[in-house]
Design a protein that fits this description.
With 281 residues, the chain is of the alpha+beta class. It has four helices and eight strands. About 14% of the residues have low confidence.
Length: 281
């Protein structure tokens, strides 16, 4: 049961006039309140936006916190906290994540790579599942995701409650940081430059500020955190029931179901490719 002190703090957070403005709008006092009740960021009491599942989801039934499988890249520690609309953390929720590697390739699918000739069928790198603890927390060890044509940098995730997908969404990252890594750090460097950033990615724009992770630098990794608000009664329009444990992972979609490598996903809105918030160019 929620204790009176915790309940009063939760109510104060929920009633805060800046609650609808996203992470960046929260003053230091509200951030301190959020930390005092175990919320990793103060982006609370708001149901996270539903976004497209994309063409690269499958359930390999791999319950693990380290999803790297020896993929090289900048280490990233990702912590998600699942809460409901009253800010109550949800225990025993299943969280799946999946994302591309440093060169923009997903595991488990054919026609990967910039020329469409890389086949990762049967591989499961950068995919995993965790169950939330009593504080609604899950943590994954992964690498900072790369990019592919038509999309900005992102991580996909799903939240399941009682075998029902209640949310399918994506996590986004600061473009200035992404750009620096992609231009200066192996193995992210490529001969081509990306065509889509946060400012002109239609999915990121629709998701809004609440889909951006709070990210900080440590000596050996980046740490990204996001509070994920869900409606426990919802059914994700992008969802499917989770698969059972064990067995071989699916091999991906039939040939022809993956995007053309020359055109990509096609969510570029054509807007200005702004890398720094508030600064055009």
């Amino acid at each position: 049961m929620t204790n009176p002190t915790r309940r009063s703090l939760l109510m104060a957070l929920a009633a805060s006039p800046v609650a609808a403005a996203g992470i960046g709008a929260f003053p230091r006092a509200v951030r301190a309140q959020a930390a005092s009740i175990g919320l990793v960021t103060p982006n609370v009491c708001l149901v996270a936006p539903e976004t497209t599942e994309g063409p690269f989801y499958f359930d390999p039934a791999l319950v693990r916190s380290d999803v790297t499988e020896d993929k090289t890249g900048v280490p990233l520690e990702l912590t998600l906290q699942v809460v409901d609309e009253t800010c109550t953390p949800l225990a025993n929720a299943r969280v799946d994540i999946w994302h591309c590697d440093a060169q923009g390739n997903y595991s488990g699918y054919a026609t990967q790579g910039s020329d469409g000739t890389l086949d990762t069928t049967g591989e499961t790198f950068l995919r995993g599942t965790q169950m939330t603890d009593d504080n609604g927390l899950v943590q994954f060890r992964t690498i900072y995701p790369g990019w592919y044509r038509g999309r900005t940098t992102h991580i996909h995730y799903k939240v399941f409650l009682d075998e029902t997908t209640v949310l399918t969404s994506q996590i986004f990252f600061p473009d200035a940081l992404s750009e620096y890594l992609f231009l200066n750090v192996d193995p992210y460097m490529r001969d081509t430059t990306r065509d889509t950033v946060n400012a002109n990615d239609g999915i990121a724009q629709e998701a809004g500020d609440g889909a951006y992770a709070a990210i900080r630098e440590q000596s050996d990794r980046y740490v990204a955190e996001l509070v994920v608000g869900v409606d426990p009664t919802a059914v994700s329009q992008e969802g499917a029931a989770p698969g059972g444990p064990g067995g071989e992972p699916p091999s991906g979609p039939p040939p022809g179901d993956t995007p053309d490598p020359d055109t990509g996903i096609g969510n570029n809105t054509g807007a200005s490719a702004r890398l720094v918030p508030g600064v055009d160019g």
